Amino acid sequence: MVPLLQRILTVLLILSTWGAYTQERKEIQYLSGTDNENTVDWDFWVTGGRKAGAWGKIAVPSHWEQQGYGAYNYGRDYVTYGKNFQFHDEKGLYRYNFQIPDAWQGKKISLVFEGSMTDTEVKINGQLAGEKHQGAFYRFKYDVTDKVRIGQDNVLEATVAKMSDDKTVNNAERLADYWILGGIFRPVYLEATPVTHITGTAIDAKADGTFKSLVYLEGVHTHTSLRVDIQDTGGRVVGSTTVNVHRGDSVARVQVQVKSPKQWTAETPHLYHAVYTLETKKEKGYQTEERFGFRTVEVRPGDGIYVNGVKVKMKGVNRHVWWPETGRSVNKQVDLHDVKLIKQMNMNAVRCSHYPPDKSFLDYCDSLGLYVLDELAGWQKAYGTPVGKKLVKEMVTRDVNHPSIILWSNGNEGGHNKELVDEYRKYDLSARTVIHAHHRPGNAINGIDCNHYEDYYSTQKILEGPHIYMPTEFLHAQDDGGAAAGLADIWELHWNSKLGAGGFIWDFADEGIVRTDFNGVIDVNKVNAPDGILGPHREKEGSFFAIREIYSPIHIKMKELPPDFVGKIAVENRFHHTNLKDCHFVFKLVNFRKPYDDQSGIDTIWTANTPSPSIAPTEKGVLDLQLPATWRNMDALWLTAIDPHGEEIYTWSWRVKSNAQIAEEVLPLKTATEVTFQEDSTNYVLAANGITVSVAKQTGLLVDLTNAYSMKLAFNNGPVLIDGEYSLTGAKPFVDGNRQGIEFTYTGDLKSIRWTMHPDGWLQLDYHYQKSGSFPYAGVSFNYPENYIISAKWLGNGPYRVWKNRLHGVTLNTWENMYNDAKAGIGPWTFPEFKGYFSDISWMQFNTTQGKFLVVTEQDSMYVRLFDFYGISGPKGYPQLPQGDISFLDAIPPIGTKLAMGINSRASVNGPAGELTVIDKSVSRTLYFYFGLPKGEKENTQFVMPKVNILTD
């Protein structure tokens, strides 16, 4: 019995020992809500603007402007309103009652603010919690252990000043080119920890598995053991160490070696956890953990930026923390959505402009894979050294363990206090490189030149050296300009240059605020804030998809199928760390629906997976599609690439049938009548199959048309040759078999116009012109009232409009867009825009209040311009438009940027694609018009699609 009793006592002793070592962790009690959608009401008083001078309620976290208090300021209002302008120097007084759990007795209690704009003075139960905090975007905390009352009501009071008492804080944060809002905009909470605890850690985990960490301690009053366990995502311990901590120690250093870790990159975001445990004989142990990744970041001056020994180039974007209804107060879902959108553009990097973001955004950059530039605020002027040192510490200690952060940015465009550069490594064990995001040449630091808004040709010069070149802003995307326009040319410079490190487009989303003082109108402060690739609610503009193609890590140059095509496609692997054998490819052979089908889109005839070739990063190879023998009977070929995570990279499309072949399928009709020809003193009149057209004798232009089965159509005054000079020399009616028409001849740029009426009602237009020189656009125009248009359906590239230097991102298909008057950056943010230039059109059908009409071309590479629009707003809309309402074009203009404007010229600075089109030849094109919906055509078996056969391997 004694041995049994001994065993029982031993088990009880072990259990009691385990109980003594029950791990303690930090406890959190939110006083505010957790985000902009989950808020808590506090008492509030504002000193100026709306609802000033009376106590009310306010949701926390939030900006008080979005809660109906105070007044709005844009950071550049001092420019708009002149030197005597004064910002609304409002102060908000917050008050909130709270209680503390009894279980927190004997613990250290801290009050934490994640972000408050801008100067914040805090009191607990009438006592100052600590010194006033200055700086809007940084986490700060106070030890309030001796100020709170457990078991009783407590009162938190916070006075938040929209403008700072520190002039340098205003210069760095508030006098900026973005909305200046006020209030406690990130969460507020209490933390409880045991007296002996870990206050923070700094990790340096290298790609070879070397893990080093500084562990910051507080309240160590006796000999303590610190254990660190490295766990993979499955919770398996892959490395461990224990070190001794002595009384009074405030920092411990640990090192663990992990064998063959999975490395973190933006392409392979493998993560681990470091679990830190304090163990003592007399007290419960404290435990905390940090997520991290094993990766080695190196800046090699005169060479490049390396991650795990591989040179990487940044396909990046600048991002503000923003949501229209709530400003800079957001939530995890917004952060996650933004990271996913950046990844969908095939980008691999983001700059946190111009301040550190919410921590959850960095968490998603870690887990989904983005390289991050974390930035200290400083729009164009810097923090002073005393306040700047405090804010560097707050930023770095909060963010230091995120593997996604590969560089620290010490302010923006002159907002660089060089006395702060050495502060970063005080808190960053991995000693990341500090950069200056600037807009002036000659300000390179630590081997990296980040000069802003250089053009294609100055970029060529900078890339000659001596520094790595990584513009932290370029291709300013105001309205529909910049972003992807010119990007393909500039990206090729960076990709092929030793010193090219890529760059960061300005910027991610239009910063439009829902104005609570103007019935919820979204205000982008005119031309100041509509700078996004996306709209305020993340509406996707055309540049989004163009960037997706340009930045595709699977690079395909083939624009059309060669005559001898047998399924082999040359590809370049532009991943940095991924072999193409880990990707997946699917091709489709498709037929397009015809104009009179009820639906747009395609019928898929053949779908098949294709083997993924083994092509190492940055190498080239061939993809073999293994096409079926009948593939040439189809309309088009689509190819989709899928990355190792199952996400689509891009879908390319190529014509199989030419426009001439497509026209042969569309043009034949079931009904026909004899063609008639008449003339009067002013017009020639052609008629057949219920359609009558009138052409002016003095000009050769269409002036009138009717359809016996529908209303009279107002499509007229064409074809006018755009930017041409010519004079009519003669007109000659003709008969060609069962067809009749008139041919007009001219001297000058326009050579001839020939109208031919077919018995089935098709009106054929042949025109011939000759030009010599460089032109923004070339072709012909017609008039049609915009307010009669309902929708347009077409076979061609879409659904987004294009510019000459932004032809990427569109897919060959049959599309239909409803009419809208969307203007990128201005609103309404309805995309795709109805109006614009559309490329590679085979046919386009217009649905109008007067009926339908259809245009078909036999030749390839036709653009169609739809109505009045512009790319960038300014004194005039830019670029200029051709005359008329609907144009059929052989050349279209490029678009520049906000910082490279000028009528039809300045786009050229961003590369060869931005040059005007050179024409030095004669151009002939044939258009076929059908004015109305042909009777019975929807029943015509000509337009019945074959049954779908989907074959997969």
UniProtKB/TrEMBL annotation:
It catalyses: Hydrolysis of terminal non-reducing beta-D-galactose residues in beta-D-galactosides. It is an enzyme of class 3 (hydrolase). This is Beta-galactosidase. It comes from Sphingobacterium suaedae. Belongs to the glycosyl hydrolase 2 family. The keyword Transmembrane does not apply. Residues 299-518 form the Glycoside hydrolase family 2 catalytic domain. It holds the Pfam family Glyco_hydro_2_C. GO terms for molecular function: hydrolase activity.
